[in-house]
Amino acid sequence: MRKYLLKRVFYMILTLFLVATITFFLMKLMPGTPYSNQQKMTAQQIQIMNEQYGLNKPMWMQYLIYLGGMLHGDLGVSFQFSNQPVSYLIASRIGASAQLGIQAMIFGVVLGIVIGSIAAVNKNTWIDTLCTILSIIGKSVPNFVLAVLLQFYIALKLGWFPIADWGGFSYTVLPTIALGVGPLAETARFIRTGMVDVLNSDYIELAKAKGMSRYGIVWHHALRNSLIPLVTLIGPYTVALMTGSMVIENIFSIPGIGEQFVKSILTNDYPTIMGVTMLFSAGLVAVILLTDIIYGIIDPRIRLSGSGD
Amino acid sequence: MKINKFAKLGAVAMLSAVFLAACGSKDSSSKQVLNWDETAELPTMDLSKATDRVSFDALNNTNEGLYRLGKDSKIEPGIATKTTVANDGLKYTFNLRKDAKWSNGDKVTAKDFVYSWQRTVKPSTGSQYAYLFSGIQNADDITAGKKSASTLGVKAEGNYKLVVTLDKRVPYFKLLMGFPSFYPQSQKAVDKYGSKYGTASKYMVYNGPFELTKWTGSNLSWTLKKNNDYWDKKNVKLSAINYKVNKSNSTGYNLYQSGKLDMTYLNSEQAKQLADSKELVIRHGASTFYLEYNQTKKEFQNKKIRQALSLVINRKQFTGKVLGDGSTVAKGLVASDMAKHNGKDFADDAYVKDATANDVTKAKKLWSEGLKELGVKELSFALLSDDTDKAKDSTEFLQSQIEENLAGAKVSVSNVPFKTRLDRSVKGNFDVVVTAWSADFADPISFLDLLTSDNSYNNGKWKNAEYDKLIESSKSTNAGNTTKRWNDLVQAHKVLMEDQGISPLYQQANATMLKSKVKGVIYNAAGVNYNFKDAYIK
């Protein structure tokens, strides 16, 4: 197990290194400069600025400098937010995104499991059809449409929750719902399919024969065995949600990280592009490792020691 | 069993989220509080480094220079009490008030101006607005790294007298003094906060009508609080201005309707729907969008081709139906309602009707004549523009107007990101580009300088000797005579328009909603937009 973990961590670092390298050189291929007032600066002024920021150095040298800094935990200073260290920008804005992402996942997955289980247990009845319709709607309505509707009807018209802003739990309710409906629908679909299969298997028949209650069968046998495909899904989904949903964050005026990434690319803010990309990648590789470990916990048949080779 | 644990864990996480986030903010319902919408974050309060509208607005209301920009871009007294200008216009002596203070209790002195200006022009600071200092003695050499910052033509004579020496006349010099790049900075604060200077409200000192608070450097809300150390505090009526960043216009308008905001920005859909509202306020920017032709190419050296392309465009339909955000048909390159002389607006004075008219018959005639002169039957070219929704709608409209009306015209549209568009413009890698220019200060020269033959921003390479001569005359022979200088600039603009060196499209505007109880807000199109010193709530 330890050997396996060490090996996996080594691959993780290798992956991150490759991501950093590829992103760095791709990013430098983008036309333009990171200066927002570029339009009004002459070529000579831009040259002087490049010297100030070390952007006139050969690209390989810039790369080594950046990599050196990153190893020391220095992600550089943002261009859009002048003088502001990228690590501060990320640290001060990842919290809201992460909280929202986790809440949305918990909301979506828990409710999704419940709805999916109900649908599976009541297979081919009107309850099943209703649940299926609900999850299709949840899957096909884009979350920003839902967000706008929730904001208008629930917040503005009914006044139950704040319209936008970030302050306390009440501020997170509507964005959580808007963001969580996607995973909810997906989870419900997966659980239903998985559980219908499981409920048809022999060991469920055996459990029934033993006289276990319907609730007991679902809880102890069926659900656990239908969770495996879900775990594959939840990992990357969580990372995606935690690192911010630009649209939802914009609609509810949430100080998250979502828009930073897009904006940094549009403005050629090199250090921020690198910082946010590395954060995303690190999150993703960590979650992939975690997922593999969780597989083993849920299903001992998946042996960790074998899967790394 | 495991499920049970997961469920518990989930519940714990949910609960802790509740507690973690349970520090809400209360709305202040005091009367003289303004709740203001903003569309982007505040990136910096370091005035040497600021480049954007949000920073300049915040700097303008929390700091003060020699002058403040008042209504209609008129300069109002700031730190300067008396100004003398030498006869040759090359030396300005400013007497400073003695009761101006920084928020740390220090007095604002002439040294703070000298320090601030030197800091901005020094290449190591990396200011993107250092070019505005061009004209002040040695400024160009300092920004180019040839001279040290201490040689800049600005000196403190004692604590309360500032002497500025210019290399050449700068007729709009006083106007520039109302722009944040020319405000003073406290060296003590810069040294004390080091690399943190201007990165959060606490790492900064203020000398203006308001103080910045609650800004962490990356958050979406901040508050301007009345500055009780401000020399003219008795005339500042607002006790606070709460800024909230809302990147979605629908959110902004929802908050406005619920009374949480006193002003909000509208998108063009909302602006069209609210066209009849009494609270709709259109804020024109000193920013003109126009077609720039690549005149290193034979086809665009042909004046008739350029004229025809301009005449086919129905600009009224363009601004009304396509843009719909309050933008108006441009009268020329220089934005309307920006610069006035003897009560006359420059855009009206220098208006050439044909240059922005819509006359399809005439366009068709000129087009076929032009093609004949070029010896071709058809002309295909690319129209370059940004890739925003608005830019895409614009190019689509222009393309259809041109192709529908001009026989043999084939337009391919290329929508690229802003920085790519700039890059291609500078390199001359375009046929026709939809571009824009906005003025840093309310003088026509901030637009007209663009199109002189040797100007590095003249990407289309339009060249006209008469135009160059008139601009030069406005800067030398007639620089000291306001009327003659004005006439030079008017003539130059007419030359540009008659030759259709560029084709103006529209003057950009922002549609906003403003509660009628809010009074006294000063808005200027050029330079800094908002000045809240005189604002109040009725």
UniProtKB/TrEMBL annotation, chain B:
Establish whether keyword Transcription regulation is in the entry. Answer: no
Chief location = other
Q: Quote one Gene Ontology molecular function term.
A: peptide transmembrane transporter activity
Give the UniProt subcellular location, in the record's own words: Cell envelope
GO aspect biological process, one term: peptide transport
The family database entries (Gene3D superfamilies) matched by this protein are listed as: Dipeptide-binding Protein, Domain 1, Dipeptide-binding Protein, Domain 3, Periplasmic binding protein-like II
The keyword Lipid metabolism is annotated on this UniProt entry: no
Please list which residues make up the signal peptide: 1-21
- Entry keyword set: Peptide transport, Protein transport, Signal, Transport
GO CC annotation: ATP-binding cassette (ABC) transporter complex; outer membrane-bounded periplasmic space
- PROSITE patterns, from UniProt? PROKAR_LIPOPROTEIN (PS51257)
List, alphabetically, the Pfam families matched: SBP_bac_5 (PF00496)
Q: Which segments constitute the Solute-binding protein family domain? A: 74-458
User: Which SUPFAM superfamilies does the UniProt entry name for this protein?
Assistant: Periplasmic binding protein-like II
Task: Report which superkingdom the organism of origin falls in.
Answer: Bacteria
Family membership: Belongs to the bacterial solute-binding protein 5 family.
Protein name in the entry: Oligopeptide-binding protein
Task: Give the organism, scientific name.
Answer: Liquorilactobacillus capillatus DSM 19910
Taxonomic placement: Bacteria, Bacillati, Bacillota, Bacilli, Lactobacillales
